[in-house]
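Researcher: Next entry in the queue.
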Amino acid sequence: MFPRSIPRSCGAISAALMLVGMLVNIAGAQQVPKRIEMELLTAEGFRSEDARPWIELLASLNVENVRIRSPKDGDQLGIRIDGTTAHITGQLLADGRLSLPKGKFYRSDKASLSTWLSKLTTGGEEAITDKPVHFGLFPRQFVETHDALAVRVDFVTEGKLPRDVLKSISERITLSFVTDTNSKAALASEEPMTDELLGLASGTAIAATLRPLGLVMVPELSSGKVRLRIKSSTEVTESWPIGWPSESTPRELCPDLFKFLNVEVSNTPVGESMKAIAGRLKLILLVDHNGLARGDIDLAKTKVSLPKTNTFYARALERLLFQAKLKHELRIDEAGTPFLWVSPLR
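Model: Structure for this entry, 346 residues:
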C-alpha cells in the first residue's frame, strides 16, 4: 500500500529558511524591474570607436537610454532599482569587455549578456547578486514560497481521496501544481486519507498527503514564477518536508507535553493510544506510513501497555511508542504550529 520511499532530511532546508528569512526582513521589499537603463563608464584605454557597437548591441537586448561617459570620483558599479526601472552602472574596459555586477562580457557574449539581463528582470537584483538556496530558488523566493504555504487547511481530510484533498488545497493557495504522467497515475489512487490535516499549514499538509503515494512536492521556478511540481520521490534529491525542526524547545512549543497525569494502559492498540494522547494535547498527529510499511508495523494490531503510574505526557508517549518500535518528534508547520510526527525507530 505504501511505497518504500525514504523521507528527505529537512534540517538543512530549515536552517537555510531561518537564515534567509532574517536577510529578507533586513533587505525590505524586493523590486523586480521591467525596464533597464545603463550608464557606462569608460576605463582608461577604452577605444571610443567601440562605443556605438555596444549601444547597438544593448539596444537589441531591450536596454534603454544607454549613456557612455568618463568616470567621476565616487562612481561605483552597481544596480539601483527605482519602481519598475533598473538603473545599471557598468564599465567599458580597455580590452573591449563590458563589466557589470557579477559579470564581464565581450560583444560576442550576447547570449550570456541576455541571460544576465533576463535574470534581473525576472528575479530582481538578488538574482544577480545572490546564490540559490534550495530548489533553485533565491532567498526571497524561498521565503515567499514558505509563507504562501502557511495557509491553513480548513476542511476535514480523513476519509477523502488524496487528489480531492490536493485540489481543495490548491484552491486556497496562490501557487499552482504541475504534474507529470507518473504523478498523475499515483494520484489516481482510490485509497482514502487516514490522516486528519484540519488546521495544518498547506505546505506540510501537501507533503503529508503525497508521501504515502510515493510522491513529493518540489518548488520550481518557471518564467520568473514559483510553481509546485509533484514528482515521484525516487526522481529527486530534495523535496518539501513534512514539517520543520523548531528553534524552540518542545517545552516551549507545547508545555502540556510535560504536564503530569495518572495513566494506565492495558493491551491497547498503539494507534489508539497515541491518538488519545494527541487529542488531550490538542496536537495534530501525523504518521510516517511509509516507514511503518517498511517495518511491518500495524498500528491497529500492535498492542502496548503501561502500568499504572504518574508521569508526564511526553514520557508516557515515549514508553508506549517504544514498545511498537516507534518514536515521536515535535515539528512545526509553515505557520509555526506544532504537531506530532510519529515514525519508526531508526
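Model: The chain has three domains: 11-26+134-235, 35-124, 250-344.
Researcher: Noted, moving on.
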